[in-house]
Amino acid sequence: MQQVAWQREFFRILVVVGLGVALGWSSGHAIWGLILGLLTAQVMAFRAMASLYRWSYRQGPPPQDSGLIGYSVDKLIRREKNLKNKLAQQAIQLQRYNQGIESLHDGVVIIGQEGYITNFNGSASRLLGLRREDSGQHITNLIRNPRFTRYFNEGDYNSSLQFDVSHRKQFSLQIQITQFGLDQKVMLVKDITERKRVETMRQNFIADVSHELRTPLTVINGYLEMLDDMELPPSLQKAITQMNGQGLRMKSLVNDLIELSKLESANTEQLGDWFNLQQLGYSVVDQLQAYSANRITFKCTQAIEIQGFSDEMSSVLTNLLTNAIKYGGEDKIEFSIRSGFDGVKVSISDHGAGIPAQHISRLTERFYRVDDSRESTVGGSGLGLAIVKHALEHHDTVLDIESTLGKGSTFSFIISSERSRVMEKD
């Protein structure tokens, strides 16, 4: 087709020029006839190009030409038609995608790289209280929650965030942000109000049962201790001793359940107060030194303060040191607090048997035991590390566990520089 267009274009020029030459030849001016033919061919081409120019701006019909311009016009018309069909198909697909996103029960918010909202569905409008005119607004201007602002600005979206919002009604939301392309983020908003209500009921039930068990257990343990001090037959004495030990273990379990319930139901929006971590470390070590047979070595050369909850941090240190005493063998237990560029690192190391790698990720689960037979001999509720996990969450940090079989384990966490400071010596 393209070759035919070129042939027609050349043929038309040759015909026009030939007619001009023939006309000039007949009058004795062949050169002028050639010039006239060339000018005529140029004018015809110029008119065709002018027609093409007007058509390109939709100011006239497409040029009727059998040469290259006519071929180009036909090619453009076919391409435009194909492009319109593709755009129509993409518009239908985009409409289906939008309808699918709109039908989701979870909220979807499309955010630019700088944090400005570009689009959102109806569920996001319902859960976050967004309005159509909010498009183009920065997401942190519309979700005014300190934890969300910190989560969004930090840019670490490997984990989700949970918080409560109030507009028209109370919602408990779970938010997960994912990078989309090079310059966009997708924020998924899940309504977990009902799940949190059920979780709260479960926590309240455990707390209520634990409180109710505390009184009868105290009475039973009191009588068992009294019987244990009496002169009894050996067979009965052994039974009383075992009952007393299991009663104390149950009492410890109830106390841990109550403490865990308090941690789970605590207000995580508060940052707490500043307290001296160095002094707290010395206090916990003093309380456990006799129990550990003086195996704990504590190293903290600076007076360090952190912002948080001293009773919860005391529970963290007590549980970690107690575990090290139970499972760390007979060697020294190294407890250190030191300040670094990224915050304050607290670590507790033992030289015990170590923990198999497949168990490390589950150690902070409630009642999870690496070795049930060993746990029954050393006692414990199986809730210590679960308590540690929740208490550290209130300090915006997580427990890091490193262990090598036959060499021991290290439990550590880092309090960020925003929540820690080194006190100057007087």
Automatic annotation (TrEMBL):
Keywords assigned: ATP-binding, Cell membrane, Kinase, Membrane, Nucleotide-binding, Phosphate transport, Phosphoprotein, Transferase, Transmembrane, Transmembrane helix, Transport, Two-component regulatory system
InterPro entries, A to Z: BphY/WalK/GraS-like (IPR050351), HATPase_C_sf (IPR036890), HATPase_dom (IPR003594), His_kinase_dom (IPR005467), HisK_dim/P_dom (IPR003661), HisK_dim/P_sf (IPR036097), PAS (IPR000014), PAS-like_dom_sf (IPR035965)
Short name of any one Pfam family annotated for the protein: HisKA
Transmembrane segments: 9-25
Location of the protein in the cell: Cell membrane
Sequence ranges assigned to domain Histidine kinase in this UniProt record: 208-419
Function: Member of the two-component regulatory system PhoR/PhoB involved in the phosphate regulon genes expression. PhoR may function as a membrane-associated protein kinase that phosphorylates PhoB in response to environmental signals.
Catalytic activity as recorded in UniProt: ATP + protein L-histidine = ADP + protein N-phospho-L-histidine
Full protein name: Phosphate regulon sensor protein PhoR
Ranges in coiled-coil conformation: none
GO biological process, one term: cellular response to phosphate starvation
An example Gene Ontology molecular-function term: phosphoprotein phosphatase activity
Main location class: membrane
Gene3D superfamilies noted in UniProt: 1.10.287.130, Histidine kinase-like ATPase, C-terminal domain, PAS domain
UniProt domain PAS: residue ranges: 93-134
Record-listed E.C. numbers: 2.7.13.3
Cellular-component GO terms for this entry: plasma membrane
Superkingdom of origin organism: Bacteria
Presence of keyword Transmembrane: yes
PROSITE patterns, per database record: HIS_KIN (PS50109), PAS (PS50112)
